[in-house]
Design goal:
Rossmann fold; 37% helix; 5-stranded parallel β-sheet; 14% strand; elongated; alpha/beta; 7-stranded parallel β-sheet; 2 domains
């Protein structure tokens, strides 16, 4: 290889064909954190970047702190195989002229499909029904038919809070169930809501009308605690709440009280205050919740999408073209290599 060979450290799981393409472009050290089960410390990352003359680092779970940018002179491109880039100090990267590129909407389909699965699980009591049969507790042939009579999605009202990439994918799928769809998103024009086959609604109106409220807004100071006691109190006693976004959007204590007092029918979440969830969490004792271990984006499709998005932007960068998903345009000065 020529002495000016570009070298990359790839710490994210990657689609095999996308990896082959990347290896045809640069010299790649591939060490997926899912294989090593290890995240590199800042000291280890600095040593790798400097010792191996790495210009490109791609991460998913690893953190890249300010000291990494301060202590390395060769790094020019950081890829983040996620939408959120809170595991990278973007301000420090920008200060040192390092591009940060993310992969927006890479898990939108995966999270949308999980959301629908959670809705069906709540509506038809699927986890409890599965346990009854598997544990040998199905003794009366008709008892479950009577006691676990569910509800259908068809004809019901879905309230989507946040019509970003995931919310839009959820709306697309709920149409197939013949649901009426309401959307609360003050940052999305009514025309775009209509294009999604939905009707815009104020948050109180949505909470009152929806049979299923599903949360898909980003976590911001404005959305923290967006669904509080007042909003939950508006829900029907037959309604369900699904949160596959961020746990901070819903006031946990208010939701717990509504569930334990049966003021709403149930809830499902794929996100918690801590991962894993604390064994002392009061939600673990409830029989009207469905809980999944933060696996909304855990699909092979998600890996394939972000892998090809990242390869495309690295290839653009190598050709002196601005990456499509550049997070810090202030750092762009043409081909930095």
């Amino acid at each position: 290889m020529a002495q000016d060979t570009i070298r990359a450290l790839l710490l994210a799981p990657f689609h095999p064909q996308a990896l082959e393409r990347l290896q045809s472009l640069v010299a790649v050290s591939y060490e997926s954190w899912m294989d090593t089960r290890k995240l590199l410390s800042p000291e280890e990352l600095i040593a790798r970047i400097e010792g191996e003359s790495l210009q490109i680092v791609v991460v998913e779970a690893d953190f890249i702190f300010e000291e990494v940018f301060q202590s390395t002179k060769k790094l020019r491109f950081v890829g983040v195989c996620r939408n959120a880039v809170n595991n990278v100090d973007v301000a420090a990267a920008t200060e040192h002229g390092v591009l940060v590129v993310n992969t927006p909407a890479r898990n939108a389909i995966a999270v949308a499909e999980l959301t629908v699965g959670l809705m069906l699980s709540l509506a038809r009591h699927l986890p409890a029904a599965h346990s009854l049969v598997k544990e040998g507790r199905w003794l009366d042939p008709v008892a479950p038919y009577i006691s676990w009579r569910g509800t259908e999605l068809a004809g019901k009202v879905a309230g989507i809070v946040g019509l970003g990439a995931i919310g839009a994918e959820v709306a697309k799928r709920l149409h197939a169930f013949d649901m009426e769809i309401l959307v609360y998103d003050p940052y999305v024009a009514s025309a775009k809501v209509a294009q999604a086959g939905a009707r815009p609604a104020a948050l109180p109106a949505l909470m009152q009308a929806a049979d299923f409220v599903t949360i898909h807004c980003p976590l911001t100071p404005e959305t923290t605690g967006l669904i509080g006691a007042a909003e939950i109190a508006l829900m029907k006693p037959t309604a369900y709440l699904i949160n596959t976004a961020s746990w901070e959007v819903v006031e946990e204590k208010a939701l717990y009280q509504a569930l334990i007092q049966r003021r709403i029918a149930g809830a499902a979440f794929d996100t918690f205050e801590t991962h894993p969830v604390s064994p002392q969490s009061p939600f673990l004792k409830l029989d009207n919740v469905v809980l999944t271990p933060h696996l909304g984006g855990a699909t092979d499709g998600t890996v394939a999408r972000y892998s090809w998005m990242m390869v495309e932007d690295i290839e653009r960068f190598l050709k002196g073209k601005r990456p499509k998903n550049l997070v810090n345009p202030e750092a762009w000065r043409g081909n930095a290599l």
